[in-house]
Specification:
The chain is an all-alpha fold. The protein has 8 helices and no strands.
């Protein structure tokens, strides 16, 4: 029996078979996205074996099941309208947008804070809105896997927020400026590191 000389074609064919229940345009879009991702990954990592690149993408059955689930959710949430039309894909925001919003949430908090004696401090509000919006855009993006999204939200949102709130509660919201600055810089470093990691592992 002859073995295939083109594992990429075999992989895409397997995805196409598993995703046969998808609408034709959505299926072709999925295959084009995968092919582009493979091409970009091979260009960025020329020494990586093709089997390693395909393994990182995931099992064709899993990819097809995820695409079917996403298409079903889009169809269920879309309002009825006359005329044929392809459902809008979610997560088409540029991958840099959620990463910037997550990273800038801390500087915005620090820049717009006007001190503990003010009747209203807009800094935490701006930071919270940026952080929540960035997390939502990250979770609805098609550029990361579910595990990567969960890890990103955990490291860039939950851990820094929990650490800051815990520190403020323990210190009675009266921490010195130096301690507060060091804590904020540590949280910012964690957010930046997480954003860099997400950018490096993003799908094309």
């Amino acid at each position: 029996m002859k073995t295939s000389a083109d594992p990429i074609r075999d992989y895409l064919s397997a995805v196409e078979r598993e995703a046969s229940a998808l609408p034709a345009d959505r299926r072709q879009e999925l295959l084009a996205d995968l092919a582009e991702h493979i091409e970009v990954t091979r260009a960025e990592r020329p020494d990586a074996a093709i089997g390693e690149v395909l393994a990182a993408l995931g099992d064709p059955r899993t990819i097809a099941a995820t695409a079917l689930a996403e298409t079903g959710n889009e169809a269920a949430g879309a309002p009825a309208r006359s005329g044929a039309g392809a459902p809008a894909r979610r997560g088409k925001v540029h991958p840099l947008v959620p990463l910037l919003m997550l990273t800038l949430s801390m500087p915005f908090t620090m820049i717009f804070s006007i001190g503990p004696d003010a009747a209203f401090d807009p800094g935490p509000v701006f930071g919270f809105l940026f952080r929540v919006t960035g997390a939502v855009l990250l979770c609805t993006s098609v550029h990361w896997t579910a595990v990567q999204k969960t890890t990103g939200v955990l490291l860039a949102v939950i851990v820094p927020t929990t650490a800051i709130v815990t520190w403020n509660v323990i210190s009675g919201w009266a921490a010195g400026e130096v301690q507060a600055l060091l804590g904020n810089l540590g949280s910012l470093a964690l957010m930046v590191g997480t954003a860099v990691w997400l950018w490096r592992v993003r799908r094309a």
